[in-house]
Design goal:
The protein has four helices and 28 strands. The relative contact order is 0.14.
Length: about 400
Amino acid sequence: MRNIVNLNKSWLFVKNTTDISLGEGVEVNLPHTWNATDGQDGGNDYFRGSCLYKKTLALADLPKADLYYLEIRGANSSADVFVGGKKLAHHDGGYSTWRVNLTEELTEKTEIAILVDNSPNETVYPQMADFTFYGGLYRSVNLVCVNKAHFDLDYYGGPGLKITPTVKDKDAEVEVEVYTTPLSASQKLVYTVYDHEEKEIAKIESTDAKVTFTLANVHLWNGRKDPYLYCCEVEIVENGEVLDNVCNRFGVRSFRIDPDNGFILNGEEYPLRGVSRHQDRLGVGNALLPEHHEEDIDLICEVGATTIRLAHYQHDQYFYDLCDERGLVIWAEIPYISKHMPGGRANTVSQMKELITQNYHHPSIVVWGLSNEISSAARTRTCWRTIAFSTIWRTRWIRPV
């Protein structure tokens, strides 16, 4: 059975270094950013460079498993993972989840070192914008412990589960597709759908990686009026034993964007009035805790918003979950912003793949944003007036010049 061990406590932090052998620094807990103060003082001279995070794992303290994956929920903006001094992985893009298989390098005492770097460069977005590019391990770090037979942990940080609901009159067809390691003849998949109260309403046992449920008299996810959520769990089972499982909530809804009538949710006009949200706050930077996300969404709902543009990058999974629960309509985007970098194309593509793969199941998301103000670097005076928002969202986003 899958076990997830949170590793947020007690990391050694050393600022402004690339030397992974260092053993002296300060102890920090995650989430952490080294720009919580200088990134907010208005001087635009905050530290951008490489910093070291180190932690030692004791194998005896870990659940027994066949495979161990380090899961990094957010390291801005590039990072290298070393285990026992050996470099195992590099990742570019500071806003998404990514994982590293540590299994072959684990010993009785294993030192993990992560070099995180937010230095200016010409290959990783963003590099020009009107917000701080906070450096750090600013979201959770976990150890995912799994059986040899497990749901895919290597593909763009995704959950290994893809849920696609389609409204059919009063019913819905829900296609569920999973991505696993190769399964043996004695192993099968058990798909289960639960309602909002966690009551089982449908189950399929199969060896197929794709099945379809029919939900009769489906309860629609209907924005703030009724953000109803189902849940789909899939298990890998062998001789009655669950080897691995994944579970995602989902909502069933239809929508379209009409140039004359605006946003249409489940066949009815649904006015979109809202805000743009960044993931930082005074004294904390971008190293937000759950209570910060909760307070943000409480304030957004309090002003009567029905929509949020999550600028200008992938946000924390917890915040997308809150948007699902509260019924907010979401524009999700990547930080391809302000200027085009000829060397950044590969990173643009990988960040978009990560955004969609990791967030496909969220009913709140209705738009995948490709870019923002991408030509602004070429202008000397700019009035940002997004036609798409004026037409689709029935509002205007204007920055004074």
